[in-house]
């Protein structure tokens, strides 16, 4: 933490701050320039969270230098973490391909989807049972029955399954049916939910909030990890910007940024970023080229009849095309699928 | 709903869509222009949520014409709704002044804050007990004890109290202590929580999500109202933009936009928008001038010792200055405080 | 400037930087914390623009501490600058009311507009002659003839006139007809144009770029001022965000932020921010309440026949209503109109 | 164009609009639904730019259906346009590799850069001579001398050269030295400059404005094309969002969006998007994977001594690594370099 003093600060102002830091067991390094005075705080800055230095007389601003997350940081595990879900490993050489419909609608639909994506080569099956929807009048998901149907589809095809949880009360039930929990973008800062999935041993796919910085996202991962669950996989799924040509703007730069700052695997969701089937493939390939550890793609046996997000779901054939090109791109960047 | 056809669409494409609409009990109005064909959908479009017209062959795009919210819309109550909390009414001539600390820290602090803002003239007391914090290592609130302390401070000063709830499990307890629930920006799309507060009879202060459009915000209000609780007051508290000079960007335009589209009262939170005490007063005055039905301002008996959001909390003296100027501005626009 | 070193930086890395700073005639202040090392740069940092410290081995990042603008800064003229245009002063107690049509269309229209806004009480007349339009197929302005018509309307009503210049070649001509030049949002970083208006003695109304930070805006003002023209008035006119309910999002916080950082007067343009006549009045009042030194409002004698921006132009009657309420709000905050 | 009427509009309101459309030689298609009335406008909507339908009584809003650009649209040349610069073709199978320093600093530097990137395999040389800089106190470019040095470096290495023009007065001179003009992000809506480069026969690299939508970008291209110059290559270089981990946010989705809407080639600039050398390679690969027709990358013989944008320029060695990986990715998506 750097404390920048006002131009007209007095010697007393500076002394008071140094005194305060001392009370917190921290040291101070004074840097008196021609135009301004700067105080470097020495020691563990977490002690300072309640000190409110910005309000001290003579202070212009405080500039944080360190991250607030620790377990999620790259420093902690410089070689990178891996996360295992069934027989699948995130963060290894293989790019993990997750696919399935937006929502589990009925047993036949999810089974057909599972068989379709399995035949193409997907490694995990996705399907939403608890659906957070913007309007209360939209289809709200098949909930517990949906999870059971998803599990059956996973079992029949030998695919581990991932599904979104939106409330900690669902965890005890969902744990019996899911190999991986997804935390959706809207719940990225639902801290109670984060803590509770942190108390399960179930790996977590943590989507980035629509308006969250990478730093806030890593802080959210830290909530899960600080409860003892380090099986967190990050998922970039597009952020909200002024551009309306796509549903969201895929922030593909998040892949190298996360790689630099965090040890956690990161995958890309081109479907929610695009919001339109025609753009899903190019965004998926961009994600792999940028170094993503996996892709989560919405695939529906018959998108025209989908109960939600119809416009962005691929047919199994379109997914097969994406899959084979993604495999080529993966090879081009030294990975495989 | 308007369906815009592709330039090269065939007669069959158009026929298929008209046929599909028929199956949903809807009519179609064909508009064949020199450059494109447009189909207007006649009837209740909510039947269409599962029809996925965008994927039909020949379709360029669908343009929604109507809102998805009903109870929250202006049409429903053209003269505007009022919401009563204790002896206070939101949406009437009086601009409702809510004030208090970011967090309830201890009995003495909240009582001092309550006495301070009461003496100035505030109508409601605020104070956070359940604190959602970006980092798991920050102060997390005094929780149940905090609510009790808040209640006591409210009772001693005769002020109704409002406090944030972050989880539906808190409601049964919180209901005994709060006159109004606050749903914070991060939980604006925590749909389970919205539904559950909708099932209580407690008035709700619904903050706008940091990256939520006005439409999504009104959809969130609709979640609460569709459960039978129409006591919703909206609160603009700044949105996330590229500008970093302020913590968020106060979208003061939201006041007239909401006024036009919705019957619900809307207030302004200048403290979270500004993130800096020096900007709170001008933003508060701007909110009142734009027609806000109230202001919620963070006031702390000693901001330098605050456990959270220290930089944006006002002293009681600074609040008194804001209050008196706000009263002048309210009069200037035909309101009072 | 603060240089934050990497955790694993060596003593040699630090020495190399101190050596480099020395070569630039700068001092270094070393702050070795438990977790990181920080180097404070002492002396005039402008010498460093070509030093590229971020690329030195061992450097994590550089954190700028000082602004790059000087003449535009508050420090330079702590009491604030005033800018005089004809008999009007920006930055004094009086809130300056500028009004007129988006575009000068013909002599009758601009004269009628001038008479209308003059009767209401406006102090300056606006009217665009050179119109920057998004599409090449839209109406492009009346150009030189427009300026002459504007001048005549100003002369007949006794109002000084302000009009946008979009190219430095227009200046010699425009200078004969305008009392104040406007630089539009799209040209805020047209540095050649900024320099050239800086070389005239004509006061400048500098609109904020649609995606420009306050810092970049003040840097743009500095371009004008560094050529000797300190008659710069800033104009907040809305920024681009994700919200589409308004044409742009009025960043009313920019008023107190600019007030704190800069000595230049700042006015508000509610018309371009709103993009819709119904929202112009509340945004105008918000601007005055927040402390703006003026308002520039689009007023057309017959908006339905306007050749551009029809939706956001007010009738003279609507302007009269806005004007009188703005006068009340001005009084409420210790100003007048 | 679709006109959506207010719920409470009268029959007269509708009649008036139909009458007005008739006066403009346009037809109307009436669609009277259960909840609202919609009028489809039949005929050439460009006639309507001055009609201001939104202000007619009873009108809720107007929804545009067609683009305002024509020459830039995909419809015009469905198979896509190609743009030839020297012996290089944009929009063909080959991904065009442009490289060179941010700024031409001196003859030795630009020649060394040219030789370096030529040896790696680049097809075009870039180098800025007229530099638009945020602060007036930053290095402003070598201007005319710079262009001559760039030309010499291009001639000695056999590489065509591209350089930014910031003012139409530079064109006559620059035309003698450049094979392609670049219009920078800040000038994307400098309409005079667009028109003037449109009147030259020189191919244009048109960067996207930092806050411009794809639609506005294509409108800007239309300005150039409407003057007779169809040699426009679009360049995505990152947009401004709330995320600060990168200088800008690369909107890689713009590649498929432009491909769908426009016939113009599109390339990607990973350097300005990233703002940091370490992120340039992954973003470059993402661009190629998404289908970009080229890459423009900043390469400096010695980035540590660069006079501008030092942090984002690659060494020749780092560029060689990027180049070879990009070639692999290009092959993976059916292209070559």
N-to-C span of chain A: 43 Å
Largest sheet of chain A: 8 strands, parallel
What's the helix count of chain A? 10
Q: So what's the overall shape of chain A? A: elongated
Strands across the major sheet of chain A, in which order? 13-12-11-10-9-8-7-14
State the share of residues found in helices of chain A, binned by percent.
Answer: 25-40%
Commentary on this structure:
The structure is a homotetramer of 337-residue chains. In chain A, helix 2 runs parallel beside helix 3, helix 5 crosses helix 6 (214-225) and helix 9 (277-289) packs parallel to helix 10 (316-332). In chain A, the strands form 3 sheets. In chain A, strands 13-12-11-10-9-8-7-14 form an 8-stranded parallel β-sheet. Chain A has a 4-stranded antiparallel β-sheet with strand order 2-3-1-4, with helices on one face. The first copy, chain A, has a two-stranded antiparallel sheet with strand order 5-6. The longest helix of chain A has 17 residues, at 316-332. Chain A contains 10 helices and 14 strands. The first copy, chain A, is elongated and about 75 Å long. The two termini of chain A are 43 Å apart. The model of chain A has no long low-confidence stretch (mean pLDDT 92). Helix content of chain A is 33%, strand content 18%. By secondary structure, chain A is of the alpha/beta class. In chain A, strand 10, helix 5 and strand 11 (204-207) form a beta-alpha-beta unit. Chains in contact: A-B, A-C, A-D, B-C, B-D, C-D. The A-B interface holds A 46, 49-50, 52, 54-56, 68-69, 132-139, 166-169, 186-187, 189-192, 195, 209-211, 216, 219, 222-223, 226, 240, 277, 303-307, 310-311 and B 46, 49-50, 52, 54-56, 68-69, 132-139, 166-169, 186-187, 189-192, 195, 209-211, 216, 219, 222-223, 226, 240, 277, 303-307, 310-311. Chains A, B, C, D: This is Phospho-2-dehydro-3-deoxyheptonate aldolase. Chains A, B, C, D: Keywords: Transferase. Chains A, B, C, D: InterPro entries: Aldolase_TIM, Class-I_DAHP_synthase, DAHP1/KDSA, DAHP_snth_FXD, DAHP_syn_2. Chains A, B, C, D: Residues 91-328 form the DAHP synthetase I/KDSA domain.
């Amino acid at each position: 933490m750097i404390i920048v003093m006002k131009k007209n600060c007095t010697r007393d102002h500076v002394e008071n701050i140094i005194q305060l830091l001392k009370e917190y067991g921290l040291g101070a390094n004074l840097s008196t320039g021609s135009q301004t005075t700067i105080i470097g705080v020495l020691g563990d800055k977490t002690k300072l969270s309640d000190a409110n230095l910005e309000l001290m007389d003579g202070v212009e601003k405080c500039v944080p230098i360190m991250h607030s997350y620790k377990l999620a940081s790259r420093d902690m595990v410089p070689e990178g973490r891996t996360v295992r879900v069934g027989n699948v490993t995130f963060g290894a050489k293989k790019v993990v391909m997750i696919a399935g419909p937006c929502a589990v609608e009925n047993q036949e639909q999810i089974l057909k989807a599972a068989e379709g994506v399995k035949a193409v080569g997907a490694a995990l099956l996705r399907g939403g049972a608890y659906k957070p929807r913007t309007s209360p009048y939209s289809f709200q998901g098949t909930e517990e029955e949906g999870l059971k149907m998803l599990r059956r589809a996973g079992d029949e095809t030998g695919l581990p399954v991932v599904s979104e949880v939106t409330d900690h009360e669902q965890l005890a039930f969902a744990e019996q049916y899911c190999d991986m929990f997804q935390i959706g973008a809207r719940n990225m800062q639902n801290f109670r939910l984060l803590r509770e999935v942190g108390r399960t041993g179930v790996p977590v796919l943590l989507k980035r909030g629509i308006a969250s910085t990478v730093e806030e996202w890593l802080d959210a991962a830290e909530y899960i990890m600080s409860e003892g669950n380090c099986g967190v996989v990050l998922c970039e799924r597009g952020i909200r910007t002024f551009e309306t040509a796509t549903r969201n703007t895929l922030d593909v730069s998040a892949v190298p940024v996360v790689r630099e700052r965090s040890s956690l695997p990161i995958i890309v969701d081109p479907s929610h970023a695009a919001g339109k089937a025609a753009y899903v493939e190019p965004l998926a390939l961009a994600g792999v080229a940028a170094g993503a550890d996996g892709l989560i793609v919405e695939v529906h046996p018959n998108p025209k009849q989908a109960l939600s997000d119809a416009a962005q779901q691929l047919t199994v054939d379109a997914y097969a095309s994406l899959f084979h090109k993604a495999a080529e791109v993966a090879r081009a960047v030294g990975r495989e699928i």
